[in-house]
Amino acid sequence: MTGIEPAPRPGDNAGMTKQGRAANFGRMSALIGAAMLCAVSAELPAQQLPPQPQPPVFAYQPTMQDVDPGVDHGNSGANLPEEYQRQLVLYRSLQPPGTIIIDTQERHLYLIQDETHALRYGIGVGRDGFTWQGLLQITRKAEWPDWHPPPEMIERQPYLPRFMAGGPGNPLGARAMYLGNTVYRIHGTNAPETIGQAVSSGCFRLVNDDVTDLYSRVQVGTKVIVRQD
């Protein structure tokens, strides 16, 4: 041994040199890529967030805006179109006199008088989604009834009062006739202009003069037929 290190032979560190160059190239590429990404990001406008879902619109819209509880627009239907004013009409039916037939599509309530005649009243009916059909009986009658909106109505319209004493401005009007054990009624209204419209949650409304007339003509146990077509 002479203590003198031999000169490296060509190729001794060739592999290490290639690896080092590759690593350096990789680091440079990463730095250049990051710089380009920052430059591009700085030039692009901020992305808009996708539109957020909106609260659902009330699913079943009435054909006109109803009148708020407590507001009284009168008792008469004198300003209604003639077809919605109380009148005796030709009407063929096999139902016995005293039967009530409600035609939701026509917005009419018929009180059968005989085989060929009926008293016809204009009515307001349930808005789309709240119409129904069936055979029930009047199970209770009330004059100037108090109003207790059912829980289902409160859930849909939480701004409604939980109770309103009977009297002018009460949405049930001057009289109410309760149908079976349901929440539905034939009743008056504080808004005569809604006769002929679809505004309710399934009840049938008449102007107060008409519901008072009907109330005097029917008894508990009266058959009520509700038709949609």
SSE inventory with pairings:
Blueprint: H1 14-43, E1 87-90, E2 100-103, E3 108-112, E4 117-122, E5 125-126, E6 134-143, H2 151-156, E7 175-179, E8 185-187, E9 198-200, E10 204-205, H3 208-217, E11 223-227
Parallel strand pairs: 2-11, 5-9, 8-10
Antiparallel strand pairs: 1-4, 2-3, 3-4, 6-7, 6-11, 7-8
Quickly list its features:
single chain; 229 residues; alpha/beta; L,D-transpeptidase catalytic domain-like; 2 domains; nine-stranded mixed beta sheet; two-stranded parallel sheet; 3 helices; 11 strands; 20% helix; 21% strand; disordered N terminus
> Beta-strand percentage?
15-25%
CATH topology of the largest domain: L,D-transpeptidase catalytic domain-like
Count of DSSP-assigned helices? 3
Q: Looking at this structure, what is the CATH superfamily of the largest domain?
A: L,D-transpeptidase catalytic domain-like
Describe the protein's architecture and organization:
By secondary structure, the protein is of the alpha/beta class. The protein folds into 2 domains: 15-45; 82-227, Beta Barrel (L,D-transpeptidase catalytic domain-like), CATH 2.40.440.10. Helix content is 20%, strand content 21%. It is built from 3 helices and 11 strands, in the order αββββββαββββαβ.
